[in-house]
Design goal:
The protein is of the alpha/beta class. It is built from 15 helices and 17 strands. Helix 2 packs parallel to helix 5, helix 3 crosses helix 9 and helix 12 packs across helix 13.
Length: 433
């Protein structure tokens, strides 16, 4: 059985929260996550962007660094970036095989009462890959929540919580305060936690958890930091302290919301250099904020004939609101949208943000067990906007062609899985970045 088949066998419906499996697996592997310094990033939205910017600054400063993110767009190897590139196929297959063999041995011996989840296995694979690459810093994105997420066996030098909004309520709680408590589970005794602009109820919870373990709280967005008006869809910041104090920085990732993410990343880098022997100059930090790319987040590709497609993983209402803000200011008016979403998301909440700024909706079927049936999504759209043009395509390629019949500038939004399937459906030779 191939590595892909062995991992696929672990992808069962539902989510299992807890640390016992990953603790036993990492112990059997020799605790690989202890071989390097770690930055641990949680949040409802923005955590991937912050991970990318922090990792980008470390690489610009010639620090041997890696990042672990999820999910992926096209290939699982995108989750494990070592240096500047996803791990190569041979190295990935070797590490994954050894981790899966270790897991099989633990199950056979009774040390694990059952197989781990897909995410527990990929987290262990990341830990091993990074140890064997000899990296100095790993920037690790939380998968879900924080307290019981399998990444939470790391001993970080710095933690961060980018944002708190309603998402995954079934697993994390029905209030922002409850969700904040779960995400604050990554806070460690004495370890600084950088927080973004959190709602007051969530902010209070995170600060209370931090106070209980004497973890210093660093507010990334303060009255002294400045946010500049966006230019060309890109926000600007002027940090008040640190190596770029008083220096205007134009954030590389598009969208007004990236100003807050950039300030979180900036303060994470400041805390990291303050607690370790890692030295990053102003040029490296600036490069991480200005030059970082993050596929699938307000990511525009140009296809044959000058047609454009804007990809964005607006997979919850908070993300959909950020996309809607961008569309109002920087994209074609009321563009057609190829849309697909997972069934456990707040679909009406997402659509209430997107429908006022978009045109015809083309619903695309996705593979896997979790996608919401397009017909059900169409019913939600009609309940909110009965007059909206809305069609269901038989495939992702057909959805793209139908959307382009409405106009040359379209949007693909919703699930990250949809974005991956859209990218795979496009002829790579026809795409110009």
């Amino acid at each position: 059985m191939s590595v892909s088949e062995r991992l696929a066998a672990l992808e069962v419906p539902g989510i299992k929260l807890g640390l016992s499996n990953i603790e036993r697996i990492s112990a059997a592997l020799g605790h690989p996550q202890r071989a390097y310094t770690t930055v641990h990033v949680a949040g409802t939205n923005g955590k991937g962007s912050v991970v990318a910017m922090v990792h980008g600054a470390l690489r610009a400063g010639a620090v041997p660094a890696a990042r672990y993110t999820s999910p992926h767009l096209s290939t699982i190897r995108e989750r494990f970036v070592i240096g500047d590139l996803p791990v190569d196929p041979v190295t990935y297959e070797d590490a994954a095989t050894r981790v899966l063999d270790t897991i099989d041995g633990l199950v056979a011996s009774g040390a694990l009462t059952g197989p781990p989840t897909f995410f527990e296995a990929t987290t262990a694979i990341a830990f091993v890959l990074f140890r064997e690459a000899g990296i100095r810093v790993a920037v690790i994105e939380v998968g879900l929540g924080g307290r019981f997420d399998s990444t939470n066996v790391v001993a970080p030098a710095v933690t961060a919580i980018t944002s708190i909004a309603m998402d995954h309520e079934r697993f994390l709680g029905r209030t922002r305060a409850a969700i904040a408590f779960e995400k604050a589970g990554i806070v460690k005794p004495g370890v600084p936690v950088v927080i973004g602009a959190l709602p007051p109820d969530a902010d209070a919870v995170v600060r209370a958890v931090a106070a209980d373990v004497d973890a210093p709280v660093i507010a990334a967005v303060t009255a002294d930091d400045r946010v500049l008006a966006a230019e060309g869809g890109r926000a600007g910041i002027v940090p008040a302290t640190g190596v770029l104090a008083g220096t205007p920085v134009r954030v590389g990732l598009p969208g007004d919301h990236q100003a807050g993410n950039a300030l979180v990343a900036y303060h994470v880098l400041g805390a990291l250099t303050g607690r370790t022997r890692i030295a990053l100059g102003a040029d490296a930090v600036r490069a991480g904020l200005e030059r970082t790319a993050w596929p699938g987040r307000l990511d525009v590709l140009t296809a044959a004939g000058g047609r454009r497609i804007l990809f964005d993983a607006a997979h919850n209402p908070h993300g959909a609101e950020a996309l809607a803000t961008y569309l109002r200011q920087w994209y074609a008016p009321r563009p057609p949208v190829v849309f697909g979403v997972m069934h456990d998301k707040d679909i009406p909440g997402m659509l209430r943000h997107l429908l006022p700024v978009t045109g015809p909706i083309v619903l695309a079927p996705m593979t896997g067990a979790r996608p919401a049936p397009p017909g059900e999504v169409a019913q939600v759209i009609r309940s909110i906007d009965p007059a909206r043009a809305c069609t269901v395509a038989e495939s992702v390629p057909a959805a793209l062609e139908r959307a382009w019949q409405y106009g040359s500038d379209i949007v693909a939004a919703g699930s990250i899985q949809l974005l991956g399937e859209v990218r795979d459906a496009l002829n790579p030779r026809a795409i110009l970045p």
